[in-house]
Every structure is written in C-alpha cells, then in structure tokens.
Amino acid sequence: MTAGRVNEKCDTRPMQQAPAPPQRSSVGLSLFLGGAFVVVVGIGVLIYFMTRPRGEKVGESSLVDRDAAIGVEAQAGDTLYFRTNVEISVPVLSLKDDERTDREASDELRKSQLTVRATSPAGIEKSSTCRVYNGRATTTSTSTGSFARSGMLNDCVIVIDAPGRWTVRASVDWSAGVTLRRASLETRRERAARSP
Predict the structure, then answer these.
(1) Domain count within the chain
(2) Residue 133: which domain range?
(3) What confidence tens digit (pLDDT) does each residue in 117-142 have?
(4) How many CB atoms sit inside 10 A of residue 116's CB?
(5) pLDDT in the model for residue 100
(6) Helical H runs in the chain?
C-alpha cells in the first residue's frame, strides 16, 4: 500500500504586519508644558520688577526710635528711595483666616504716614511724606500673634541737591489699628547719570 503524497503549497508572499496602534502625539503635551513654563517665568519676572527697589542700599534705621538716623554720602542729582520692614501684633485667639488678617493689616499700614527728612551738610532739610505701604512688598508672613511684612515699597522720594554727607531721619504716624512690635527704614541711593 502506497502512502498518498500530501500536496502542500507554500505561500511565499511576505506576511503582512498588523497595523501599529496609533501613537499619541507628544507635541500637544510639549506645547502645554512650554506655555506653562513661559507663564510662570513671566509672572516671576513681573513680580520681581514690581517689588524691586530702586538704587543701592546705603543704610537702615529704626522707625521705633524717633532719634535714629543714618549718614548718606551723596552728590547733587542723586535720589533717595526708601523701603520699610514692619512687624505688628495681631490677636492670638481669632476666627480670622490668614487672608483676612493680611487684608486688615494691609489696610492699617496704608493708613500709616511715613515722613522722611534729609538734612544737608549746610543744615538745609528736605522732606517727603507718603503712606508706609503702597501695596507692593517683598515678603509677608503670619504667625501666632504677629504679622510681618518686609521690603514694603512707598512713594517717598528725596532728590539731593548738594554734595556731601546727608543725615536721614524718619518717623511714622501709625494708624490707630497698628500695635507695633518692630519697624525699620531702609534707605537706598540711586546715583545720578554722570557725563562721560
């Protein structure tokens, strides 16, 4: 008995690969992350320029001691700018949240009036009066019983009109709602543009 030969045909055509599943494009995610980065950097730069003081720091004096003073070497045309640092007491037992405490403290600081006096070597006094806080500051912190704000900008400006060592003093008419713990004035000098 002869075994039958099985006639098999081989398919020599190349096998077709199954279509690859569609890949999610990462372009959209990259654009989103890039845009978010630009926004964050932009906000940081904006905050920096809004809170950056003008000039260089030349001294700091107490706003608690009315006799405190600093000496500033200046030339005619230089400008003095100022920043304040304040810590005030707030109620320890209070139902207010930090946001409300911040808002109320800010209102009281805006009501407080800063007066800066600069006396020339010849004894001539120049003065400037403004609010202690104009709404821009570097840092704010709240802890149990206290509220502190540093690097507060204000609108007081004194333009120097004679060369020499000027004496700078300052005082504050604090709002009735302020219970002061500490306060200081930072004096900054911006040099006038000099001819080459």
Answers:
(1) 1
(2) 56-190
(3) 999 999 999 999 999 999 999 999 98
(4) 23
(5) 86
(6) 27-51, 98-111
